[in-house]
Amino acid sequence: KNEVIESQNKNWDEVAKSLTLEIPNNKTVWYQKHMAQHNLENFDLSWTKNLSNCFLIRDPKEVIYSFIQKFELKSAKQLGFLQQMELFNLIKNRDNTDPIVIDSKDILIDPKGVLSKFCNKIGIPFFEEMLNWPTGPRKTDGVWGKHWYKNVEGSTGFNSYNPKEIELPSKYQSIYKDCLMVYNEIYSCRII
């Protein structure tokens, strides 16, 4: 945690401004992955108006199960579902349209179909090369990559979807229910 914090700019306004400047490295598309749980209350999110916002969602049961393998879970806010709903509603109300939503299960079931629809929605061409990548870390992974991206670094494409039978301990049921309400509402707007 400290390594990640120390590696990043801690001034929220400067970070937001840097995310809406010119696209780096002479690229035409700049994919930015933001984690909703990192949004703090009362921070100005107007900078998101300048982006094509997309919500990548995942079944909260799977999220909770993964999270508790590494961390102690005490609150739904740790997972970002509640903050994601706030951001979803902000963008929906501000832009008068449903934001783009992709469920992780859908992209594993039909990578080409989902990516094609996504590209069409944001106005960029789809290329078959988007379905494969070389193994190993990427310089854009950040210092957290070594802690979180082991499976991605070992892959060369999308894995097949394999449903898991997950039985969450009873102490997480209220968190799961809170997250499931948010997930279901956002899920209803997915592009598939």
UniProtKB/TrEMBL annotation:
Gene3D superfamilies with a match to the protein in the record: P-loop containing nucleotide triphosphate hydrolases
A Pfam short name: Sulfotransfer_5
Signal peptide: none
GO biological process, one term: carboxylic acid metabolic process
InterPro entries in alphabetical order: Class-IV_PLP-Dep_Aminotrnsfr (IPR050571), P-loop_NTPase (IPR027417)
Family according to the record: Belongs to the class-IV pyridoxal-phosphate-dependent aminotransferase family.
Name of protein: Sulfotransferase domain-containing protein
Species whose genome carries this gene: marine metagenome
Phylogenetic classification of the source organism: unclassified sequences, metagenomes, ecological metagenomes
